[in-house]
Please model this.
Amino acid sequence: MNARVFALTLVAMIAFAGNSLLCRSALKQTQIDPASFTSIRIISGAAVLWLIARSRKLSLGTAGSWPSALALFTYAAAFSFAYRSLSAGTGALLLFVAVQATMILWSWHKGERLRAIQTCGLLVAFAGLITLVLPGLSAPPLVGCLLMLSAGVAWGIYSLRGKRAGDATKATTGNFIRAVPFALVVSLAAIPWMRIDLAGMSYAIASGAIASGLGYVIWYSALPHLKAASAATVQLSAPILAASGGILLLGEPLTVRFLVAGVAVLGGIALVVLETKS
Model:
């Protein structure tokens, strides 16, 4: 991984962690509901990306695709509803473990093979996930876990499709614009439970315009230079960034269960990434 790709990947991971913090902050500290957060996030992301594409005189035409847009929307919606009950760090850990599983399974299907120590790394990472979700006093709510795992699968599919999407800005813009109708349908269905305030709207706009729209353009720019296995594993650094932000900014507790799970996941990442470089 060269310096440019490393820098792009690092910025993208910071943006992904920022999404977790923004969503959790909005649902914990403001009145906004998950459906409204999702819609505002997607619409603001689409608007900013459209402005960027127009300033660069890009012809969007058939940019993006409906399957990618559906994957993007599914991720964003499940992500928002899951964060009603999950902490920032736990949600991010579940999300990116599911991303990893999706992308690794696809890489195996396409013929990419891991070395023995990389396989051990993956097993350690998944052991950390199991430690996190096993029943107990500090286990996160099951429904929230399932929603976030679903979001991770959708994001994994979106990332895999992004590897062959061509121009990153055009593809991301097209996908966000196509995802808007899906978001509006869910918001219409959730009108009886709709709650929006200025603070929640601000968090959603920041999530959509900066952490999502710009973050995904950066991620799509790095993806073509990463193998599916490597792309999956480096994303597992985002939970640690999100957990740190949750502890420092949101006052969320650092539990022994999360600490053990986080160490296992990071250890697994190290085994995979370091072996890939050797």
In short: Residues 75 and 225 are 23 Å apart (CA to CA). Residues 3-29 form the longest helix (27 residues).
